[in-house]
Amino acid sequence: MDSSVLFLPELLLIASIMAIPGLYIFTENRNSYSICSNLSLSGALIFLVLSWYYPDTISMNRDVSVYIFYDHFKIDDFSQLFKIVFVLTALIVSLVSTSYFEENEPHQPEYFTLLLSSTLGMMITASANDFLTIFIGIELSAFSSYAMVAFRKKDDQSTEAGAKYLLIGAFSSALTLYGISLLYAITGSLTFDGVEAFIDGLNSGVIDGDFTEVIFIASLFIIAGLGFKIAVVPFHAWAPDVYQGAPTPVTALLAAGSKAMGFVAVFRVFVFVLDSASEEWKLVLGIIALASMTTGNLAAITQNDVGRMLAYSSIAQAGYIMIAIPALSSEAMSGAIAHTLVHAFMKGGAFVVVGCVGAVGLGYSLDSYKGLAQRSQLLALSMTVCLLSLVGIPPFAGFISKFFLFYGTLKVGLAGENWLIILVLVGVLNSALSLYYYLKIMRYMYLYDPEGSEEIVFPNTVRYISFGILLLLAVIFPLYWESLFELCKEASAALIG
Question: What is the rounded distance in angstroms from the CA atom of residue 486 to the CA atom of residue 372?
Answer without folding.
Answer: 37
